[in-house]
Design brief:
Blueprint (H helix, E strand, L loop, with lengths): L12 H11 L6 E8 L2 E7 L2 H12 L4 H8 L3 E3 L9 H9 L4 E9 L2 E9 L9 H53 L3 H15 L3 H11 L4 H10 L8
Antiparallel strand pairs: 1-2, 1-5, 3-4, 4-5
Helix pairs in contact: 1-5, 5-6, 5-7, 5-8, 6-7
Length: 236
């Protein structure tokens, strides 16, 4: 089987690493992993294209090794697909791609259920403890993904907070410019800024930025811009 060359999406990176490690275990010719969220298959990663096709066919079956590990939460092993009678449809599919034995592990962590299957080209080709190794790899992968997700969310929150602080600073600077130009207090200056935001249909932070970027403008220039957007009084 030729290694799969198709690049994986970023979300599958940790699964890809897990599958690559699993495929390198003794006796293993390849590996696959599937992620399930609330009984819905969310993602698949396989070390080889034909194993990916095997997984796609397996999930269509109502009775298969994957369905069994998902239902019981316990690993399963097929020592020889030629002789095993538990999942005849799956065994026939596995034989079509040359798989003679396999073991599947499963773990549920962080709201995700992840399966990992190791395949061998020989009957009884996987050493004892392979199922435990697959389960350990799943736990390691899911925890790493959760930690990365928490880090990404924290980074996003920091980014939003930084933007909010910068926007507030711009608004305060713009208020100061208007106060100086219009000889008004902070409340009136902010009302002018809000009015400009509505009339220009722009965020107040963007209006504030344009005022700050044009500074130092003369008081007359700032006053003219603000007054152009001030409401006209009847009879004026």
């Amino acid at each position: 089987m030729a290694p799969e060359a198709t690049p994986e999406p970023a979300a599958a990176t940790s699964l890809r690493e897990m599958v690559d490690v699993a495929a390198a275990l003794p006796g293993c010719c390849g590996a696959s992993s599937s992620v399930w969220i609330h009984d819905r298959r969310d993602n698949d990663v396989s070390s080889h294209p034909d194993l990916g096709l095997l997984v796609q066919e397996e999930v269509r079956l109502t009775d298969s090794p994957m369905r069994t590990v998902l239902g019981t939460g316990e690993p399963v092993t097929i020592r020889d697909t030629l002789e095993d009678t538990r999942w005849p449809q799956f065994s026939a599919l596995a034989l079509q791609v040359g798989i003679r034995s396999l073991t599947s592990g499963v773990a549920t962590l962080e709201g995700q259920t992840v399966t990992c299957t190791l395949y061998a080209l020989r009957s009884d080709g996987l050493p004892a403890g392979s199922a435990a190794a697959a389960t350990a790899l799943i736990r390691q992968s899911v925890l790493a993904t959760a930690q990365q997700g928490a880090y990404d969310r924290a980074q996003q929150e920091v980014h939003h907070l930084t933007e909010a602080i910068a926007a507030r600073r711009l608004v305060e600077q713009a208020r100061g410019i208007i106060m100086q130009a219009m000889h008004c207090d902070s409340t009136v200056a902010y009302e002018h800024l809000l009015r400009m935001s509505r009339q220009e249909r722009r965020r107040i932070a963007d209006v504030a930025r344009s005022l700050v970027d044009s500074h130092p403008a003369t008081s007359a220039q700032v006053s003219e811009r603000v007054l152009r957007r001030a409401p006209r009084r009847s009879g004026a």
